[in-house]
Amino acid sequence: MINIILAIATSLLVAILATPALIKVAYLKRLVDEPGEERKLHFRRIPTIGGIIIFAGTLFSYLMWYPFSEMADIGQMGRALKDFQYIGATMIILFFIGIKDDIIGTAPVKKLVGHLLVAFILVIMGDIRITSMHGIFGIEQIPEWASIFLSIVTYTVIVNAINLIDGVDGLAGGIGVIAAISMGIWFQLAGAIEHAVLAFALAGSLLGFLVYNFSPAKIFMGDSGSLTIGLILSILAIKLIEYPVEQLPNELLGVSRPVFAMAALVYPLTDTLRIFVYRIVRGMSPFAADRNHIHHRLLEMGYGHRRTVLLVYATSIFMILLSTSIRQEPSAVFIIMVVVSLLFSQIPGLITYIKRKRTSPAS
Length: 363
Hints:
By secondary structure, the chain is mainly alpha-helical. It has one domain (2-359). It has helices spanning 2-28, 51-65, 74-103, 108-125, 144-164, 171-190, 193-213, 222-241, 250-253, 257-264, 266-281, 294-300, 304-325, 330-359; strands at 32-33, 46-47. It has a two-stranded antiparallel sheet with strand order 1-2. Helix 3 (74-103) runs antiparallel to helix 8 (222-241), helix 4 (108-125) packs across helix 5 and helix 8 (222-241) packs antiparallel against helix 10 (257-264). The longest helix is centred in the N-terminal third of the chain and has 30 residues, at 74-103. The radius of gyration is 20 Å and the shape is globular. The protein starts with a helix and ends with a helix.
């Protein structure tokens, strides 16, 4: 428990103390995002390299407080060292891909190569992959090829989903905090302190960053931040889904692990699915930038940055609590969670549509 407290406290202090200096450097070196594009929501120059703080605070705290001394046996130590090695390596790779994109831009093909390299290291070399559906739709163990494919898709979707929701002050950072803390608490209850330390190290750096990123933002996280968050959350989600059921305490036995992992990431996953379907139906590229995300709809309804992100935070917390309170057959829980999340995602668009119909000349 002491490692967890020290992990979140260390990364929190690093972020709070180091961010002001980074903001000054960013202005001096002109590492800022200029306003002007239609889809941009800010009206002044804002630094875009906040991901440096998220990466540095998380990695420093993770290295500092990783619980090697609490490993029970040689086998556990070996597995822990393997995870430690590959998680650290992929964090560094993805951070440099992101920071290059923030400063001078990166060609999509090069970013794709970087993502494939990270996926190869995690899934093939690190063996961090999903091997079972754990009873959802009656599926238990899945073939190795399907396990590799599903794991790569899971990593890719989560990383890009976090990147896509980074469009409102404090949104991606706050969702990252909620997801990291919820999974960190789960791992702490399960006794997986090494994963809990990683989760709370990320949560601490994001909490410190939010001091400067909450509306009105003084700094943006950029791709270096969103990619780092997405990578860590994807690793934690896979580790949570694959955690041995025989090692779980009684209070976690009735909770569906895949459903809980999805609930922790419900907003980025739902919004990404919604926006991809929306764009494809309209004949657009699913990766084309626009202002049709759920948070954009909420802004159009007049909620403002702060109320928008607080509403999304509250919805995310509600879905996490819902996933832990429904103790039914895994398939039923999965269907309930999907239906509820999709209904929530359609409410802002429906309200906006009704308002437009009422104010249109034809009405």
